[in-house]
Design a protein that fits this description.
The chain has 567 residues and is of the alpha+beta class. It contains 19 helices and 14 strands.
């Protein structure tokens, strides 16, 4: 309702006064969600940079011990800077990768993507969200493969998929609290899925899943009027994403259900499935907190395997599909070292505690360890034998070479674990072209949103250029690389250069699409790349010779080194 109100406002005065009024009259979580989503989608929102969500609703991003210390500091008028530790202890092996799922920047990426592409979005709001279903697949696939590479960096097996008829092996104690409404519920180890009153039965979830498997096996989806929609093509994944999530774009929500959305609620309620203890919603029921629970990644591995089943049913790419005639990659590599480390990061906790007139604010901060990497660049030498200038689409992937047992991935199994590092367009002159692309320019990452205080200071000073912070949807740029290992973790670095004239949606536009178009598209426009997301590694590769004989695709071996903590 509030999103509707704000979107209907045609001028600034209307929007600001409505926002100010409803801020006093609505649940604060609903208010923040509606305001942030409206700023993203309203024409009045262009150029607005809102503060990072972890400083607006800190209780969703940090643990209850820190919040309680902040309250004590406020009551005793003592400034404080508190260490935020990751959930759990070393007795739990999942603790080794908690830095990824509990990273406040990664949490912001996840919640912002769902604000950019809400499941309830209708085109009456002003425009169509292009390839929303495919983006749902791709952004969650990338979260899952990134999590898998973090697990391999920490000597853990890749994550197993969740199954409705088998126990949920990992419990989770979130150690987080609602600002109003108690603690987030915990879930013990080794529990079997139970029906959740008023949401769904386990049997319903299995039926939904089997209907989706049937659609993949048949190669078509049936819409609500009984018409058949062919999915054995590049667009099929988009339709599949719409029915799996499911969004308003689903052609037949009554039949295919809402597998993903209901699965999140089912998991969130397993601590109190029948409402016996009147527990509040679990971490899986909020976009801000969902990735904190390791089972989030098990759930998305389960979704991912359904998408993989579809991709594997499509015919593999041929030499003609992959070839960019006249373009040869002579070499590909990196400039600088691929080195990661942990650093301290501080954020503001003032909004975690209540304020009242006459009570002075005190400086309250939390500090947390977070993953970062040294700057580096991708480099490539590309020869253009076409005699004239051509436009190339550069697609860069990083793929782990070995599983946790030291078994080498082959083309058949390894292509599905590749991390998208960048995608960009470059004009190639005749002859040799030396390409340098900085890690900070990647089309999948965003910089840190400026802190609440620095935004206030910038606004007060009157000199504000915050253009690069307009979008918060994207992997944090410091997490472009997986952690790696102290003695080096082996990856294959892939580069595919494809025909930009064929790939680009906007033939007359500027090919230098900035921002995070690879994972988040371009606001209000069609997705800039016509090819399937993940191309050319998205379909099965039964014969590696197709790739070996294609001169516009090349890979090299690199190592990612972990350096420990930097103070």
């Amino acid at each position: 309702m509030l999103f509707d109100v704000l979107l209907q406002c045609k001028d600034w005065d209307c929007a600001v006064k409505n926002a100010a009024y409803w801020r006093e009259h609505m649940n604060e979580g609903e208010f923040v969600y509606a305001l942030y989503t409206a700023v993203i989608h309203s024409d009045l929102g262009h150029g607005i940079v809102l503060p990072p969500l972890y400083e607006v609703t800190p209780h969703l991003f940090t643990n209850s011990e820190v919040i309680q210390k902040a309250y004590t500091a406020k009551m005793t008028h003592t400034a404080g800077n508190f260490e935020m530790e990751f959930t759990g202890t070393k007795k739990n092996k999942e603790q080794r990768v908690a830095y990824f799922g509990e990273d406040i920047g990664m949490n912001v990426h996840h919640v912002t993507w769902h604000m950019d592409f809400p499941f309830w979005w209708e085109d009456k709001y002003g425009h169509h969200l292009d390839r929303k279903g495919e983006l749902f697949f791709w952004v969650h696939h990338q979260l899952t493969v990134r999590f898998d590479s973090e697990r391999l960096s920490n000597y853990l097996d890749m994550v197993d998929e969740l199954q409705w008829d088998k126990p949920i092996e990992e419990g989770f104690a979130p150690h987080t609290i609602y600002k109003y409404g108690g603690e987030f519920p915990a879930r013990p180890d080794h529990i079997h899925f139970e029906d959740v009153d008023g949401v769904a039965r386990v049997r319903d979830m299995i039926i939904m899943e089997s209907r989706i498997h049937d659609a993949i096996a048949h190669g078509y989806i049936t819409d609500k009027d009984g018409k058949v929609i062919n999915i054995m093509n590049d667009e099929g994944i988009d339709k599949l994403g719409d029915i799996i999530e499911s969004s308003v774009y689903s052609p037949n929500a009554q039949y295919y259900g809402a597998l993903h959305n209901l699965a999140h609620i089912m998991l969130g309620r397993q601590g109190d499935p029948h409402g016996k203890y009147n527990m509040p919603p679990g971490v899986m029921e909020h976009f801000e907190t969902a990735t904190r629970d390791p089972t989030f990644f098990r759930l998305h591995k389960y979704m991912d395997n359904i998408f993989k089943e579809h991709k594997d049913s499509l015919p593999p790419y041929t030499h003609e599909d992959l070839d960019f005639p006249g373009v040869d990659i002579e070499s590909v590599g990196v400039e600088g070292e691929l080195k990661t480390y942990f650093e301290h990061y501080e954020f503001d906790l003032r909004n975690a505690v209540d304020s009242a007139q006459g009570i002075e604010d005190v400086d309250l901060k939390a500090h947390v360890d977070r993953l970062n990497h040294k700057d580096f660049s991708f480099v490539a030498d590309v020869k253009n034998n076409n005699g004239g200038e051509v436009l190339g689409t550069f697609r860069i992937y990083l793929c782990p070479d070995y599983d946790n047992n030291g078994e080498k991935f082959d083309y058949t199994s390894g292509h599905w674990h590749c991390i998208e590092m960048d995608k960009f367009w470059k004009k190639l002159g005749p002859g040799n072209n030396h390409i340098v692309r900085k890690s900070s320019e990647s089309a999948v990452t965003v910089p840190d949103v400026p802190s609440f205080q620095s935004l206030i200071d910038a606004a007060d000073s009157g000199s504000v250029d915050l253009h690069e912070f307009e979008r918060s949807c994207g992997i944090p740029n410091r997490m472009l690389l997986p952690k790696g290992k102290k003695d080096g973790m082996e990856f294959s670095l892939w580069l595919a250069v494809t025909d930009g004239k064929h790939d680009l949606t906007h033939s007359n536009g500027d090919p230098e699409h900035g921002g995070t178009h690879a994972l988040c598209g371009v606001h209000g426009e069609t997705y800039p790349d016509k090819r399937p997301m993940g191309f050319p590694l998205d379909r099965s590769i039964p014969d590696r010779r197709v790739f070996d004989e294609t001169t516009n695709i090349k890979f090299t071996h690199v190592k990612v080194y972990y350096e420990g903590h930097h103070d």
